[in-house]
Design a protein that fits this description.
Strand content: 35-45%
Shape: globular
Number of domains: 1
Number of strands: 8
Distance between the termini: 42 Å
Radius of gyration: 15 Å
CATH class: Alpha Beta
Low-confidence stretches: none
CATH topology: Alpha-D-Glucose-1,6-Bisphosphate, Chain A, domain 4
Largest sheet: 8 strands, antiparallel
Helix content: 25-40%
Order of helices and strands: EEHHEEEEEEH
CATH superfamily: START domain
Length: about 150
């Protein structure tokens, strides 16, 4: 096993970084994003995204869980917050490997900000071979999705 690091491209957000941080640091705010109708709309907009079925989204301020086909139940938990700058999350024990994710925010000016996702995953060589490309693509897709949310 070895720790692999996957970093997204830096994405521009047309909202103040404090608003973005306040929204993302409460996982209950993600609930509307998991609405099946919203996911279907996104699939139409981005037809090259993989066909993944998400169900049973549940969240509190610090934790969320959902089912993802064909993986199963997945959960994440916020383990650290650095106001207006950083949110650190970790995966639950249902994942076949340990994962930590950092959402880094930077102000551009009073009404715009930047986001970058960094994922650290403890992967065996076999799992890295199977999921490495998906993790790299995934962090970029997450950063892109975060850049399209309206935070006001």
């Amino acid at each position: 096993m070895g720790i692999e690091k996957y970093e997204s491209e830096v994405k521009f957000i047309t909202s103040p970084h404090e608003s973005v941080y306040n929204h993302l640091s409460n996982l209950k705010n993600l609930e509307p994003l998991f609405d099946p109708n919203r996911l279907a709309e996104l699939k139409k907009q981005y037809p090259n995204t993989p066909d993944i079925k998400l169900d049973n989204f549940r969240a509190s301020e610090d934790e969320c869980s959902f089912s993802i086909s064909p993986v199963g139940n997945i959960g994440v938990e916020i383990i650290e917050r650095e106001p207006s700058k950083l949110i650190k999350l970790t995966g639950n024990k249902a994942l076949p490997f340990q994962v930590n994710c950092w959402i880094q925010l930077l102000p551009v000016d009073e009404s715009n900000s930047k986001v970058k996702i960094t994922l650290h995953a403890d992967l065996s060589p076999m799992i890295k071979m199977l999921v490495g490309k998906h993790l790299k693509d995934g962090v970029n897709q997450i950063a892109e999705a975060l850049s399209r949310i309206h935070y006001s």
